[in-house]
Design a protein that fits this description.
Layout: H1 3-29, E1 52-56, H2 60-76, E2 81-86, H3 89-99, E3 104-107, H4 113-123, E4 125-131, H5 137-146, E5 150-155, H6 159-166, H7 169-177, E6 181-184, H8 187-195, E7 201-203, H9 215-228, E8 234-240, H10 244-253, E9 261-266, H11 272-281, E10 286-288, E11 301-303, H12 310-315, E12 319-322, H13 335-340, E13 344-346, H14 354-362, E14 366-368, H15 372-383, H16 386-402, H17 406-414
Parallel strand pairs: 1-2, 1-4, 2-3, 4-5, 5-6, 6-7, 8-9, 8-12, 9-11, 10-11, 12-13, 13-14
Helix pairs in contact: 2-3, 4-5, 10-15
Length: about 425
């Protein structure tokens, strides 16, 4: 074990009590964190009987990004079991909703050497895929020792993340150099990874462009729109993060659009009640999506307190703001909204999707707003201009279609490692 990884592992052991406390703390809001706890330490049930292709998707966004790759692997390698691992209950639930019982699901263990050994001995994967930027130093070293080819796929590294990893350049370079291959989203991502010491880096594009809006969810969107009221203008704030709903509601307060219905879908389900309370404190009339009843004419805000319906929400609105971007959190995935064909608004903070956001704006599929006042102005202008909304919708679909193809490029690269 290198000196850097020894120090990292020692810190993990020192942090063990705090990791357990954090798990218990998070379980206060999401009791699911206390389910399958043994898996987090490398203890699993019955071992799979068929060879395993393993994909790690830490949470919701990575799980959704992995979906087209998972589907392609299921079709092309029916003799293999697909194992999808996560770190969060919401990621695990997203995988269950997307794939049902067609594949195996488990938590990836914490990055202790003993837990990594148990995980690899139990599942014995033929090949492993880490989605986006998941550098687990002992896991990567364990796969190298067990001769499990491990790829970093859909890899991205913002300038902010690069600076964080650069403080531990030796350890990062050791991990990146031990990977079988790194398949980056963009040239900028590849460049930053190479500067950190990565080798065998290729640019293959973003898997999220290959995710086709499910027909069932598009139909569900039509049903949602009927519940909302087909003649009411609908503004959607999707995947909002903590501190952002206040800004969205400030923007809505500036609007004077007759009959406007605002739909807010928080990114994390544990915040549903918090957002409902925030809306109530504003004196606004609220209904929850979970009530599954028509929206009353006097209702001003709908809380999207459901899981796995984001495409439906996009299909049911006139204008969509994609969250995580009015606050400095890097933004959520705007590609899904573009693919559905809805005019998209994003805030100034989109470093998690910088190239996609810049291209969407340049190609007329999205508009960038700098604050809540600009958000209000953009929503008002778009709701008053149906031809402009149609042009942006068409540009969004074309933008999403134009950049597809990453799944085939990834498959071509990793197929040699699949028996």
């Amino acid at each position: 074990m290198s000196a850097g990884r020894w120090a990292y592992t020692r810190l993990l052991w020192l942090a063990a009590p705090f990791i357990a406390l954090r798990l218990a703390w998070r379980a206060r809001r999401q009791p699911e964190y206390l389910r399958h706890v043994a898996e987090r330490f490398g203890r699993y049930g019955e071992a799979p009987r068929s060879p395993v292709i393993w994909i790690h998707a830490v949470s919701v966004g990575e799980t959704r990004a992995a979906a087209p790759l998972v589907e392609a692997l299921v079709q092309r390698h029916p003799e293999h079991s697909i194992l999808l691992t996560h770190m969060t209950p919401t990621g695990r639930e997203t995988g269950r909703r997307l794939f049902g019982d067609r594949l195996l699901q488990a938590y990836l263990p914490y990055d202790y050497p003993f837990a990594v050994r148990r995980f690899l001995a139990h599942f014995r994967p033929t090949l492993g895929v880490l989605m986006e930027t998941e550098l687990w130093f002992n896991l990567i070293a364990g796969c190298r020792q067990a001769r499990v080819p491990l790829y970093l796929v859909n890899a991205r590294l913002s300038e902010r993340s690069y600076r964080r990893y650069d403080r531990f350049r030796g350890l990062a370079a050791e991990a990146l150099g031990a990977l079988e291959g790194i398949l980056a989203q963009t040239e900028a991502d590849a460049g930053r990874l190479i500067r950190l010491g990565a080798r065998r880096v290729e640019v293959v594009g973003n898997l999220k462009f290959d995710l086709t809006p499910p027909a069932a969810q598009l139909a569900q969107g039509q049903a949602l729109r009927a519940l909302f009221g087909s003649r009411r203008p609908v503004f959607l704030a999707a995947s909002t993060r903590e501190g952002e709903e206040t800004r969205v509601l400030d923007a809505v307060a500036r609007l004077h659009v007759p009959g406007l219905l605002t739909v807010i879908v928080p990114r994390h389900p544990q915040r549903f009640d918090e957002v409902a309370t925030l809306v109530a404190r504003r004196g606004l009339t609220l209904q929850r999506r979970s009530e599954a009843r028509p929206i009353a004419p006097e209702t001003q805000v709908v809380l999207g307190d459901s899981m796995g319906e984001l495409f439906a929400y996009y299909a049911a609105c006139d204008v969509a703001f994609v969250g995580g971007s009015l606050v400095p959190l890097g933004g959520q995935n705007l590609i899904e909204a573009c693919a559905v064909g809805v005019p998209v608004l994003v805030g100034p903070h989109t470093f998690n999707f910088e190239e996609a956001a810049e291209r969407a704006v340049a190609e007329g599929a999205a508009l960038r707003v700098v604050d809540e006042a600009a958000l209000a102005g953009a929503v008002a202008a778009l709701l008053a201009d149906a031809p402009r909304r149609r042009r942006m919708a068409e540009a969004g679909r074309a933008f999403a279609q134009r950049h597809r193809g990453a799944v085939e490029r990834v498959l071509a690269r990793i197929s040699a490692g699949i028996g």
